[in-house]
Design brief:
Radius of gyration: 16 Å
Number of strands: 12
CATH topology: 2,3-Dihydroxybiphenyl 1,2-Dioxygenase, domain 1
Oligomer: single chain
Strand order of the largest sheet: 2-3-4-1-5-8-7-6
Structural class: alpha+beta
Shape: globular
Largest sheet: 8 strands, mixed
CATH superfamily: 2,3-Dihydroxybiphenyl 1,2-Dioxygenase, domain 1
Order of helices and strands: EHEEEHEHEEEEHEEE
CATH architecture: Roll
Number of domains: 1
Strand content: 35-45%
Helix content: 10-25%
Length: about 220
Amino acid sequence: MYRFDHIMYAAADLQSGIDELEVLTGVRAVPGGSHPGMGTRNALLGLGSQQYLEIIAPDPNQDLPGSLGEALIQHGGSGIRSFAVATDRLAAVETLAEVFGFASRGLTPMSRTEPELGRLEWRLCFLKHRLLPFFIDWQASPHPSKTAVKGCSLMAMTVLLREPSAYREFISQLDLQTLALKVQTSTASEPEGFTATLMTPRGIVELPNWWMTPIP
């Protein structure tokens, strides 16, 4: 089974990202923890049962050169950078992706310490396409949505691509649960990337596309 897990909302600074989402939604995300080796830390905002929005930003207490944290600083913008799909079948993901021409970057073990849940351990699978979701196996760890602040829900998400055919076919094979995902062709004037619609205490909100800002 493949299930939508979370949105990755990238920011160049964690507090700025938290403030930005609070202005948009009326809900203030709660700090999560640090990702050792990735140069990042996060804050979480719940989107429902086993779903959440992750604000990911550089961690100033880590060495940043060559890390994701450094890339977020260099980019300087904020918005949806990616999304995660939960599964306990990461090897099957790699096999299926190869059928559609998407190579795997391998499996990466991860961990962080969450204030209320304690130590979380999981594995990630990234594919060699910047707009494909990444895949996460939470193993025996409690799901972070259990302690994420409530108040918002995900209504729909859209992926915009110049050539969406292979992407769309791959995603359709996953039969994603709990996500209304559209894969659409972007126009010449429209950047590739993601949009998402949330129901929030401040009404319906459209989240910005991180990829809209040119990468230096």
